Amino acid sequence: MPELPETETIARDLDREIRGRTITAVEVTKPDVLREVSAAALPRQITGAKVVRSWRRAKLIVLDLDSGDRVVVQPRFTGALLLSRGPLPAEEAPYSTLRFHLDDGRDLHYRDIRRLGTVALMSPARFERYSGGLGIEPLDPAFTTEHLSGILRGSRQAVKKVLMDQRLVVGIGNIYANEACWRAGVDPSRAANTLSADEAERLRHGIVTVLEDSIAARGTSFRDYRDASGGKGDFVRSLAAYGRGGEPCLNCGARLVETHAVDGRSTVLCVRCQR
């Protein structure tokens, strides 16, 4: 699933590539991905609108239009926003769910293999209400050790589950929760309210640095994530925990343990380094 680094990469790419472009037509081929707008209404409402800005909130990619509307894309597991001039590659074309024609001759497709992601059309007020239910951005200066400590103290859940709760902290999914805990030397299964102030500081540092490092590498690609040009992210080369169960810890050499006991999803840790 695209997490913060992947959606940030896509949003930045689109801001550079399509800011100022006008949507000249919209084709909806698989309307089940749409939310808060019908397949008939979407072309009527945004054809002729100009893209003012592309940006990210949580794991969402947001296109601000000069009409006042916002196109809000949640890629979930296999969604991607792909720019093309002409048809998409043969391996991608069958999964295009909708297509925005742009005034420079290019198209912006929302491609989703499993169609679990969504594309919504929201007014600014509606988006603010939706966004208000989401947690703090971990790359925001307000995400201090004190703020994270307050979140941790308020929960007996496993640290990893707290980090992945989008109502508390946004953008962190399974990949980066594993990586942040490894960098911090914190057992992801520990009750959040047992972490000391020093451990909370290490965890905050681990979260921020792993997200920034992954953004610099344009995200992590295993199978389905692609950037706006169809390229893959390169952070998979730098993963220290996620996907490395049974391999040696890059810190101490002990064999990493993989378990599904924390939240039913793969959790990888070093029992020697992470306490």
What is the topology?
Blueprint: H1 4-18, E1 23-28, E2 34-35, H2 41-46, E3 51-57, E4 60-65, E5 70-74, E6 79-84, E7 96-102, E8 107-112, E9 118-122, H3 124-132, H4 145-153, H5 159-163, H6 174-184, H7 197-216, E10 257-259, E11 267-269
Parallel strand pairs: 2-9
Antiparallel strand pairs: 1-7, 3-4, 4-5, 5-9, 6-8, 7-8, 10-11
Helix pairs in contact: 1-7, 4-7, 6-7
Brief digest:
By secondary structure, this protein is α+β, with helices and mostly antiparallel strands.
CATH superfamily of the largest domain: MutM-like, N-terminal
Which term fits the overall shape? globular
The strand order across the widest sheet is 2-9-5-4-3
Largest sheet: 5 strands, mixed
Detailed description of the structure:
The chain has 275 residues and is of the alpha+beta class. It has two domains: 4-132, MutM-like, N-terminal (N-terminal domain of MutM-like DNA repair proteins, Alpha-Beta Barrel); 145-269, Helicase, Ruva Protein, domain 3. The chain is 27% helix and 20% strand. The chain contains seven helices and eleven strands. It has helices at residues 4-18, 41-46, 124-132, 145-153, 159-163, 174-184, 197-216, and strands at 23-28, 34-35, 51-57, 60-65, 70-74, 79-84, 96-102, 107-112, 118-122, 257-259, 267-269. The strands form three sheets. The chain has a five-stranded mixed beta sheet, with helices on both faces. It has a four-stranded antiparallel beta sheet with strand order 1-7-8-6. A two-stranded antiparallel ribbon has the order 10-11. α1 packs parallel to α7 (197-216), α4 (145-153) crosses α7 and α6 (174-184) packs across α7 (197-216). The longest helix is centred in the last third of the chain and has 20 residues, at 197-216. The model has no long low-confidence stretch (mean pLDDT 96).
